[in-house]
Amino acid sequence: MSTNSPRLLASSSAPTLPISRNSLNITRTDVLHRFALPALACKADAVPGRINRQYIYPTAPGMYLGQCSELCGANHSFIPTAVEVR
Asked: Which residue among 6, 29, 57, 80 is buried most deeply as judged by most CB within 10 Å?
């Protein structure tokens, strides 16, 4: 991560999506998480052993940042997530 990235929001890798309707398949292997990308109006549960599908509709290119919003263990509430839209 670079030094000019937002604290606790920057991710080391981000998937790149086109500007159109996209679906995200969300799952975890350890504990329950609830990821939120507020600028894309997306908040979805990541449940171990299940796959959740969330549709997002980005309208502008850019980097969209978010976090895990569930207290699911030690330091799990600060897991950053990011999506790059081109």
From this structure: 80
